[in-house]
Amino acid sequence: MTEELRNLFDIQKLDTQLIEHERKQSAVPRRISDMEQELQKTKEKIAKEKEVMEELDKERRRKEKELDSEKERIKKVQGRLLEIKTNKEYQAVLKEIEAAQAANDKTEEEIILLLERIEELKKDYEAATAHLKKREKEVDAEKKSLEKEMSSLGNLVAQLKKERDALFSSLGKEAKSRYKMLMEKRGGVAVVNVKNGVCLGCFMNIPPQLFIEATKNSQLITCPSCNRIFFYEEQC
């Protein structure tokens, strides 16, 4: 086995770990952002619910004021009944009172419906607010955990890069160039195992004699189909 081939395989293992850890690192800010957006949307929804509740309560107070005013007006109209001289005028006033009372009855029903709706919204608002507080605590704990994970990943990535760079610097110019090219063109996989005459990079069959040579790990051999570098390991 050539030392350079072994180093290439070890570099690939380190790069595979680095790619995975860096993927996790990049996912953390997105996760935090998603949670913050979730909280913001919930807050906006609760704020809108509160606004609707306040508008309905404002409408309720307006109707109650209107009702009180109408009741006072009816009392005044009723007071006029004693002053009326003709039956025609008396009947007209009675109709006016009856119409006003019917309108008041309708307003009272509307006020009751508003109170019921406000009470429903109040319960929903309180439940949503309680849920938000609970979720804020959960998000805060998760953010701290993610930030701790980020710090740990940062240290691990730094260590892996140090090991990887040390190995990479030992490669010859041609090996470095080929490895970099394959990493870019083959999705971050430049060195692969070969098993039972099959490349485990592209899963294409390779010639029997080439497979035999690849299992020796004595020289740099590449796949005829994907050009990845072979490194044979029996346990894979």
SSE inventory with pairings:
Blueprint: H1 3-80, H2 87-168, H3 173-185, E1 191-192, E2 194-195, E3 198-199, H4 208-216, E4 229-230
Parallel strand pairs: 1-4
Antiparallel strand pairs: 2-3
Helix pairs in contact: 1-2
SSE pattern, N- to C-terminal = HHHEEEHE
Structural class, judged by helices and strands?
mainly alpha
Shape: rod-shaped
The spatial strand order of the largest sheet comes to: 1-4
Mean pLDDT, as a whole number? 93
Examine the coordinates and then state which fold CATH places here, giving the name of the CATH topology of the largest domain.
Helix Hairpins
What CATH architecture of the largest domain would you give? Orthogonal Bundle
Q: Which spans have pLDDT < 50 for at least 5 consecutive residues?
A: none
> Termini distance?
17 Å
Which percent range describes the beta-strand content? Answer: under 5%
Question: What is the total tally of β strands?
Answer: 4
Number of domains: 2
Q: Largest beta sheet, briefly?
A: 2 strands, parallel
Q: State the CATH class of the largest domain.
A: Mainly Alpha
Spatial extent as radius of gyration: 40 Å
Q: List the total number of helices.
A: 4
Helical amount: over 70%
